[in-house]
């Protein structure tokens, strides 16, 4: 069975692991109601997307 010849340094180990971290989702403000929403999605608060009302939201 193969065995490493040298100990892997902390820097080399962490360089390998740095990209697997979870990222926070990006939020943008809705241009109509200024509530935070996910980009390229219909606003759940007002129902607008791309300056058009896509769904009716009861207030």
Automatic annotation (TrEMBL):
Q: Does the keyword Kinase apply?
A: no
What residue range is the signal peptide?
none
KW Ribosomal protein (keyword) present: yes
Identify the keywords attached in UniProt to this record, alphabetized: Ribonucleoprotein, Ribosomal protein
Q: Name one GO molecular function term.
A: structural constituent of ribosome
What are the transmembrane regions?
none
Any one GO cellular component localisation term in the record: large ribosomal subunit
* Gene3D superfamilies referenced in this protein's UniProt entry, alphabetically: Single helix bin (1.20.5.640)
Pfam families xref list: Ribosomal_L32p (PF01783)
Q: Name one GO biological process term.
A: translation
InterPro entries according to UniProt: Ribosomal_bL32, Ribosomal_bL32_bact, Ribosomal_zn-bd
The ranges of region (Disordered) come to 1-20
Q: Which family does it belong to?
A: Belongs to the bacterial ribosomal protein bL32 family.
Entries under HAMAP family matching the protein = Ribosomal_bL32
From the Swiss-Prot or TrEMBL record, give the protein name. Answer: Large ribosomal subunit protein bL32
Q: Which organism is the protein's source?
A: Aceticella autotrophica
